Amino acid sequence: MKNNLWYKDAVFYEISVRAFKDSNGDGNGDLRGVTQKLDYLQNLGVDCIWIMPIYPSPLKDDGYDIADYYSVDKAFGSLDDLKELICAAHEHDIRIVMDLVLNHTSDEHPWFQASRSDRNSPYRDYYVWSDTDQKYTDTRIIFVDTEPSNWTWDEKTGQYYWHRFYASQPDLNFDNPKVQEEMLNVARFWLDLGIDGFRADAVPYLIEREGTNCENLPETHVYLKKLRSFMDEHYPGRILLCEANQYPEDVRPYFGDGDEFHMGFHFPIMPRIYMALKKGRYEDMAEIMRRTPPIPENCQWCTFLRNHDELTLEMVTEEERQWMWKQYAPEPRMKLNLGIRRRLAPLLDNDRRKIELANSLLFTLPGSPIIYYGDEIGMGDNIDLPDRNGVRTPMQWDDSLNAGFSNGKPFSEFAREREELGYQFINVANQVNDPDSLFRSIKRMIAIRKKHAAFGGSSMEWIDAGNPAVAVYIRQYHNDTMLILNNLSASTETIILPAEYQKAYLDLFAGHTQTLAETLTLPPYSYLWLQMLK
Ligand code: GLC
């Protein structure tokens, strides 16, 4: 585990600890449960897991509202359980990153309790207070379905406090050097415990300035660079992954000169993959990739199809958003804020061809891919559950009572929106040994990806093959060159290959050599990964 650039060609896997595996029958998934399932993750080919927040929390935002940065919520286990998980993961050649929530705490955090108790409290300045709610009025509201304002009135001390998310998540004041210091201490604590890095939550919003939209401000970058240099100095090889839901040109500064974040999510490509699949055209994807600036050599994008939040439509135009809602959220309750609260398989009509094709794109676009737990088996969702809980239902291990997730009463209902995606039909036990399963297809994609440096590289060249329905591109690193073809349409499509690509290739899935002629025909929703032979 020595290579400090390991993240550049790693395959990531996001886990909701609460929903993954319950080891003690209390109905909640826990850290020991994750440890028990490391063989499964290793078998799939995962290099790094990202665990969602495990800190003590009143759970108004599923743990992203932290009440204590220095321990593990009892429901998930203990600090010792985490140490054991980290050790066991490393024995499986798997790294672990966790959420670091810098921007805000829970309103139940002792800092906020003190801050709101008295205007003269030494903690008053840990948060952002104001006499008026007419400050920073150019700032958008993120949770538009529930929050009327970014300010909430505090009766006792007669001022408003600032929050970019739920009112129960007051924003920390990063203009206060003490807050900056506190959060470095938090990072140090978990790094000392052995964690391999952080997915840094909601970083664009750390600093507020009048007359701006209070996002991506220079002072925010100054602090993040401090955090990075602290990590480089004391914990080389550990990473920072940036959650900045922004257009690529606005994410670009978060990489700095290779001295800020190691990785950043590529938010805008995600909805465009769904647009491409529905329209049967790749243009929107190509356009956003062309708009994606180069990043420093020691940095990497992080790509995903789904995560624990709603499928965000913040990084599309208003017209595109309406179109996406129409296509993918036919029932009003499928919408949430500016997004869609559904999982991959139901979004893609549980159509195996479309699910595989989406994964083919995920695993061949520039960036390191993240799989959202359960999507590798095509798990469903449960839109009867509120907020984003419907995409955080328990992992489906087998068809026994409670899906092999828990011997007790599970904390949540299971996925059931489409009965055929319920655990009686979709589960790990059914799929791991079935060579024709989705799990096995994903596992194969991962295995192939890991053998070829081209996928972790940064180069990507779109090829005009005369057919807007087929995404054709070259991925290359040194002399490893891949020609990737994805037919996004429901019909058989023919492409015309430019002369320079009419060559011999190794078909990485079929395992045989194939010489491409000028025209090539692809079945509906099919994909080919071809390695150019010299
Ligand atoms: C991030 C998380 C989301 C959470 C929010 C506030 O966007 O992904 O789940 O609600 O931050 O912490």
| Net shape | globular
Instruction: Round the mean pLDDT to the nearest integer and report it.
Output: 97
- Tally the helices: 16
Query: If strands are numbered along the chain, what order do they take across the biggest sheet?
Result: 1-2-3-7-8-9-10-14
In terms of DSSP E residues, the strand content is 15-25%
How many extended strands?
22
Structural class: alpha/beta
State the end-to-end distance. Answer: 32 Å
Instruction: Name the poorly predicted regions.
Output: none
Describe what you observe in this structure.
The chain has 534 residues and is an alpha/beta fold. The chain is built from 16 helices and 22 strands. The strands form five sheets. The chain has an eight-stranded parallel β-barrel. It has a six-stranded antiparallel β-sheet with strand order 15-16-17-22-19-20. A three-stranded antiparallel β-sheet has the order 4-6-5, with no helix packed on it. A hairpin with a 7-residue loop joins strand 15 (459-462) and strand 16. Helix 6 runs parallel beside helix 7, helix 9 runs antiparallel to helix 10 (283-290) and helix 13 packs parallel to helix 15. The longest helix has 17 residues, at 177-193.
